[in-house]
Amino acid sequence: MTRVALVTGGTRGIGEAICIGLQAAGYRVAANYAGNDKAAQSFAESTGIGVYKFDVSDYDACGRGIEQIEKDLGPIEVAVNNAGITCDCTLHRMDRAAWQSVIDTNLGGCFNICRWVIEGMRERKFGRIVNIGSINGQAGQYGQVNYAAAKSGIHGFTKALAQEGAGKGVTVNAIAPGYVDTDMVRAVPENVLAKIISGIPVGRLGHAEDIARGVLFLVADDADFITGSTLSINGGQHMY
Ligand code: NAP
């Protein structure tokens, strides 16, 4: 059976690796993105995976995007909520926009996507949802009250929705990546990054493929007894 998977923020970084991993495993994949058309175009050309531009923080746009994906590929059976942004700043300097945009994209995006796909998954009695949280949602991080709150919220969201889906064949799990070598982490100043790497017992940043491996494990048909869990993939940096 070929299942249909949606990966938000699927055209770059961790999402790109998740899309490629799912495609290699036989899923029909849709990759969502927000605005970087150039990256999306190059991703689509190199993978043959369809790209869908909509903002996950916009509930109605998510509805329209999902309607289009389901027209093109069929009902979404696997949803990977991966789209995320940072807007780092200490709280005493943070403006409301930096707070709201990070909450609306990272956490609001999970609600918006899940709300549009959950009824179909429950009716068909099959669904796999994976939400990408963060080590910084588990441990907190200086300069990231917005991001840590959003990611921590994702972990609670996951456990609550897992309870609701358990009797309907819908599993809901989270992955909490540590520091992974993507554009998001490349934006961290070099001296800060060197300090971070020195605190990772495995001695390196994660690769996007390290996270994709976890997603593939959690979405498998026979992973039906794994729900409400958080898989930490962080090179041993934080043992939760
Ligand atoms: P990235 O390289 O910055 O890529 C982000 C992806 O999300 C892009 O495809 C981007 O689209 C998309 N996106 C951003 N805002 C969006 C929105 N409002 N609507 C739809 N798509 C949106 O990020 P990454 O490092 O791969 O991170 C992926 C996820 O892992 C995020 O949730 C992040 O918080 C989490 N994470 C990352 C790390 C890390 O070390 N990298 C660690 C822990 C957790 P465009 O290309 O159009 O901008």
List the helices and strands and how they pair.
Elements: E1 4-7, H1 13-24, E2 28-33, H2 37-47, E3 50-53, H3 59-73, E4 78-81, H4 96-124, E5 127-132, H5 135-139, H6 145-165, E6 170-177, H7 183-186, H8 190-198, H9 208-219, E7 230-233
Parallel strand pairs: 1-2, 1-4, 2-3, 4-5, 5-6, 6-7
Helix pairs in contact: 1-9, 3-4, 4-6
The chain binds NADP nicotinamide-adenine-dinucleotide phosphate.
What does this entry look like structurally?
The chain is α/β, with parallel strands linked by helices and 240 residues long. It has a single domain (4-180, 207-232), classed as NAD(P)-binding Rossmann-like Domain (Rossmann fold), CATH 3.40.50.720. Helix content is 49%, strand content 15%. The chain has nine helices and seven strands, in the order βαβαβαβαβααβαααβ. A seven-stranded parallel sheet has the order 3-2-1-4-5-6-7, sandwiched between helices. Helix 1 (13-24) crosses helix 9 (208-219), helix 3 (59-73) runs parallel beside helix 4 (96-124) and helix 4 (96-124) runs parallel beside helix 6. The longest helix has 29 residues, at 96-124. The structure holds NADP nicotinamide-adenine-dinucleotide phosphate. Residues 8-9, 11-15, 32-36, 39, 55-57, 82-85, 105, 132, 134, 177, 179-180, 182-185 line the site of NADP nicotinamide-adenine-dinucleotide phosphate. NADP nicotinamide-adenine-dinucleotide phosphate binds at residues 8-9, 11-15, 32-36, 39, 55-57, 82-85, 105, 132, 134, 177, 179-180, 182-185.
